[in-house]
Amino acid sequence: MTKELKEECGVFGIYAPEGSDVAGDIYYGLVALQHRGQESAGIAVSDIRGEKGNVSIKKGMGLVNEVFSEEDIRLLKGNIGVGHVRYSTTGGSVPENAQPISMNYIKGSLSLVHNGNLVNADELKNKQMYRGQAHYTSSDSEVLAYEIISERLNTGSIEEAVKGASKKIKGGYAVIVMSPRKLVAFRDPLGIKPLVLGRRDGTYIVASESAAIKSVGGTLIRDIEPGEILTITEKGVENDRSGCGGKEAHCVFEYIYFARPDSVIDGIPVREARFHAGKALAMADEVKADVVCGVPDSGLIAAEGYANASGLPLSFVFHKNSYVGRSFIKPTDKERQTAVHMKLNVNSSAVYGKKVVLIDDSIVRGTTMRQIITMLREAGAAEVHVRISSPPFLYPCYYGTDVASSGQLIAAEHSNDEVRKEIGADSLAYLRIEDFRMMTGELPLCTACFSNDYPL
Ligand code: SF4
Asked: pTM, whole model, 2 decimals?
């Protein structure tokens, strides 16, 4: 449910062989990916217009527009670059864990941005500590960087080093590595994390989502394939597909919640997937209601799909105040309740005396949903029927989503009727796992947080 479940990270990379500075594009690309991580942001650029490939980097805690001033962007000189927005899934929310990670080694330097979690990070870290590389606080991204560097010492190029490292790492990941003169982008063989390639004239762009490519005036070329290693140099794009063709398991939560609705991931428009989830909910529903509405912003498109299939009128019941600062989102239940009231108001005339179908994308702890239902009842709603455009969230994610234990998940600890009572709804129903097919067709999915069927 909205901000109870934290996004992962967003990555962005750009190569402009014609020589213009790219920091401004990275800034806007990161702003377009801000929904994927709000704790820290960073940019590294390399200037290969001279002989050397000078790398400049700036990163810090906060939103993209809090970390970078206009002057910062002007001073980041370079025509290749990578950027990152972060929500900490591992390693803690501290400045040292902000990305890009930049490391020097005997053959050169690399800067790396990474979205995801490695499930074998501890095992790799122990080996690296034995070699004198990693230290006990190393994040997954540092572990990955050390692995690539260690391979690079015995190989002829950064892309070969990435290939060697990718055979050792396991997990969900989308990574962009900038060696001073190249960009190398790669994605986990299951395709858990999204990564796309785009172009603007002669400039190549790699990003977590196609919306970020569009935001800098580019066009989506294609998804980077699961297991593919893509290298961008002054000669253009080369790829190694030797890691492709195995089992795939794309994160279904990208379609339900994480990704922007104007993004297209693995060939499927996210908006369409959400719309069809709403339709599937309506087709399985027998409730008699007067009006359907969605919780902003996460439930709006599914509500549209529900209205389309049910024939009920879609009403914009909530007014959202977008100007509430992040500082109001506090961790205790009481403070969280206040925050919901600050962010959302109900238009009473839209619900007074009516039986309302209320759509949202998920329920994690249930706290926010309880508040929203109370607000609807205070505004005069006669009945509130909650429909969730995902199945009950029951199991943790090990690939980069911040729900660490089943103890945090209300549906894992309580029956459907107990959850209904807890949130104060007249009825509660979820999308069924088999309905994912209506959202994403034949695309092979990771559904582990709903089904306990982990692909790794
Ligand atoms: S467990 Fe859930 S959130 Fe994690 S990758 Fe799979 S579908 Fe996505």
From this structure: 0.93
